[in-house]
Design a protein that fits this description.
The chain has four helices and six strands; from the N terminus they run ααβββαβββα. It is an alpha/beta fold. It has a single domain, classed as 3-Layer(aba) Sandwich (Trna Endonuclease, Chain: A, domain 1), CATH 3.40.1350. The protein has a six-stranded mixed beta sheet. The longest helix is centred in the C-terminal third of the chain and has 23 residues. The protein starts with a helix and ends with a helix.
Length: 153
């Protein structure tokens, strides 16, 4: 446990950090007119941390990295790129940003808000994949709403 504390440089435990970053990211996306959900499953078997869809139908994916060890041990993020128009890393304040690749966008977030430090380049998604991602997103959001509001489930 002492090694974990050293790696996170005084930040709370990783799940708490990731949840706080996700909350700030979702708030920022909402301010930008982008509806978002967390833990969005993809049809390639992966699950993105945050996915948002804007009014124009463009898809944004955010990969949260809570500490340096999280980034160094989890290299699945390139598999998310075909499923979005914009890809960002989101990290807490104090994260060593120099270890992140320079191509994706970059956000810094806490539980209250997020800021974009580097805009994500746009990479237009294939139209068929966009339709599938949009339907999957809509169904996931609707199912979560039903589970949250129907006490029988």
């Amino acid at each position: 446990m002492a090694d974990f504390a050293a790696e996170t440089a005084g930040l709370p435990e990783t799940p708490d950090v990731a949840a706080a970053v996700a909350r700030g990211v979702i708030r920022l996306l909402g301010d930008m007119g982008i509806s978002a959900i967390t833990e969005m499953p993809l049809n390639n078997g992966r699950r993105v941390d945050v996915m948002g869809i804007g009014r124009d139908g463009r898809v944004t994916v955010i990969e949260i990295k809570s500490c340096e060890n999280d980034f160094r041990t989890d290299r699945k993020w390139p598999e998310y790129l075909p499923y979005c128009d914009f890809f960002y890393f989101a990290v807490p304040e104090g994260f060593p940003q120099e270890i992140l690749p320079e191509e994706p966008g970059l956000m810094v977030a806490d539980r209250f808000d997020a800021v974009i430090l580097r805009p994500a380049p746009e990479t237009a998604m294939n139209a068929t994949r966009r339709r599938n991602v949009t339907l999957r997103f809509a169904r996931a959001a609707a199912e979560r709403l039903v589970r949250a509001t129907d006490q029988r489930l």
